[in-house]
Amino acid sequence: MRPRILIYMIAALFLFSGCGYSTRSLIKSRFKTVYVEPVKNKVDITQEAANQRLFRTYHPLLDRDITNAIIERYAFEGGLRLAQPRDADIILKAELIDYRRDALRYDDNDDVLEYRLTLILNMALRDNKNDEEVWSEANFSGDTTYFVTGSQAKSESSAVDAAIKDLAKRVVERTIEDW
Q1: For residues 10 and 153, what is the distance between their CA atoms, to the nearest angstrom?
Q2: What is the gyration radius of the CA atoms in the chain, in angstroms?
């Protein structure tokens, strides 16, 4: 009878112990609220692009869409409450510095089949109460790939939406998980 109890206890120990994965979190330490400043647009659309296009491509109001996506992601995650600047424990500041659309695949006629769309931010998280920088990240990116033809084709505007969602997810993860 005792060996059976021992086996059940060991099985229960493994069952309820989990995988052991954990991260340190800013949330659990001292920060409870966040304010997201509107993302500043620093993309120079008149600059010549490196891959021989005359000018860079860009989508109007992209900075506003990124700001809204980050705010929505904080609300979805639920770890930090959104607050006004005067009440927030931390303030996220970000600048959109680049919008890149790079060709990934070509067909036999050198027509582009697939693109990678990348949005790049410089950002910093500030402790609002102590007026000090918690961290800063240069060239922080979110991206997506998309086909322009075939059964998996999608428009560039839907790819922009996917890249914005990816970027917002990564920004919030960077804030919450103190790697």
Answers
A1: 52
A2: 22
**Which residue, among 118, 131, 35, 134, has the nearest Cα to 75 in the 3D structure?**
35
Distance CA 160, CA 113 (A): 17
Per-residue pLDDT of 33-64, as tens digits, reads 999 999 999 987 776 555 445 455 678 899 99
List, for residues 115-144, the tens digit of each pLDDT value.
Answer: 999 999 999 999 999 999 999 999 999 999
Task: Tell me the per-residue pLDDT of 159-174, one tens digit each, with 9 for 90 and over.
Answer: 999 999 999 999 999 9
